[in-house]
Amino acid sequence: MHKIDDKLAKVTARIHQAAAAAGRDPQSVQLIAVSKTQPPEAIARAYAWGQRLFGENYLQEALDKLIALQQLEELEWHFIGPIQSNKTRPIAEHFQWVHSVDRLKIAQRLNEQRPSHLPPLNICVQVNIDDETTKSGVSLAELPTLIAAIAPLTHLTLRGLMAIPAATDDPGQQRSAFAKLRGALEVLNLQGYRLDTLSMGMSGDMESAIAEGATFVRVGTDVFGARS
Ligand SMILES: *Cc1c(COP(=O)(O)O)cnc(C)c1O
Fold it and tell me: Is the CATH number 3.20.20.10 carried by domain 3-224?
């Protein structure tokens, strides 16, 4: 068996186990294979195995791969990296999801630049859940204002929240960070929003994220191997 096939099978089994342990339907957690720095051949291999959702962080690298793989049907591209405001157009044109919206200007540009023949772009707002100065993301305090401003944009569909908590091996700390994001989503939904997406969990903490309600896990290393 090819090593990517083997890794995908293992990650999928972990997702199913974690969902079962949390009393959740395994189908309610989708795997995004994070393919940053990986060549198109690795993505094609994962595709042949049956993987359809891929996450990319760097725009130019992503566009090269989108072109290389454009003959593959049903690929779903998720942009998960930091966004510069002068680079929004190709994101609006080529991706189905953006997980890393953390300021209104970016959302407004994506909304203006989303081609009208395409369905609305699915958006998650990235939250800086541990208030780390080095990380992108809106603070929990500023989240409600940003959500209120993005929700009316008609070429976007506001789907939910994304976070990258501070790295830790302690499952208790992992869960409490993910629980904060889930809590923020619940509060917003009590206010009348209909957000259905929690994008949280990576190779080292996906089980904790699934226990706290993740609907997308974004996994790179454990799908493709270590990045060079
Ligand atoms: C790289 C990356 C991932 C995947 O991380 P791994 O630890 O390799 O699984 C997930 N989310 C984001 C935003 C990333 O940049």
Answer: yes
Which residues have CB under 8 Å from 110's CB, separation 6+?
88, 91, 92, 98, 101, 121, 123, 155, 156
What's the gap in Å between 92 CA and the centre of ligand 1? 21
Query: In this predicted structure, what is the pLDDT of residue 116?
Result: 96
pTM here is: 0.97
User: Within the chain, which residues score under 70 in pLDDT?
Assistant: 1
Q: What is the pLDDT of residue 194?
A: 97
Q: Where are the domains of the chain?
A: 3-224
Instruction: Among 4, 11, 32, 34, say which to mutate for ligand 1: greatest number of ligand atoms within 8 Å of CB.
Output: 34
Ligand 1 center–CA 220 separation, angstroms: 5
Instruction: Pick the residue whose CA is nearest to atom 6 on ligand 1.
Output: 220
Specify the pLDDT at position 228.
78
CA nearest to 128, candidates 140, 117, 119: 140
80 CA: nearest ligand 1 atom? 13
